[in-house]
Amino acid sequence: MERKSFDLGDIVEMKKSHPCGTNAWKVIRMGMDIRMKCTGCGHSVLLPRSRFEKRMKRVLKAASKNEETENGA
What we know:
DUF951, DUF951 domain-containing protein, about 35% strand
């Protein structure tokens, strides 16, 4: 199975929508677990990487390199 590529700061689309009505999430932490924040209501969720990769559909908006350097990353 091919690994899905995503990066810190990307906006990703998940298979199921959040109860607030949106299914777009921003990746805010990466490691063994992925923390993502709902772009609709701001709710934060922590998922194991394997579960995140199964539930992610695609990257809606890739994080720009300028944004990462401004944030000190």
